[in-house]
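PROTEIN DATA CARD
Card holder: 2-C-methyl-D-erythritol 4-phosphate cytidylyltransferase, chloroplastic
Chain length: 196
Origin: Rubroshorea leprosula
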Amino acid sequence: MPKQYLPLLGQPIALYSLYTFSNMKEVKEIIIVCDPSYEDIFEEAKDKISMDLKFRLPGKERQDSVFSGLQAVDPNSELVCIHDSARPLVSSGDVEKVLKDGWHIGAAVLGVPVKATIKEANSQSFVARTLDRKTLWEMQTPQVIKPELLRKGFELVNREGLEVTDDVSIVEHLKHPVYITEGSYTNIKVWPPQLG
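Structure generated from the sequence above:
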């Protein structure tokens, strides 16, 4: 079972962020990208939220899933806010901040300054250099992008056959600035016990 559907204090992990987003006045629609066999988890939560849910099929890679979800976005939407449901502790305050920054810049991502020392290694696993952590940030979600910018980024990424590991990387390929909105260290990603 994917980690976001495992129970946490009596409910699937994915529902925590669903409830956070569904209670925000800024959020007009929620599109869930998931395997149809897990849709019932969200359907059962419908009586606790005040908006309809749209479902889309996931793709092979993360970027394919995001592209699938983008196809269902209302054409009048001003922003797309992409969130990983394995981050159940995202706060509405942090979401509001990144939405504001995304609106002004066109693309913004929650992140926190790196606390650990990060080493760059060579191909033989020897330390090549120590990176200056004052300039390093750990990316989180949500990642917020204006829809027209995201569509343009996907055109480039798909045409060039590029692989990206997060959503704002798509617009980075357009050389568009991406703002890092300082988030919270509590916005952790849940990992299955065997990966923790």
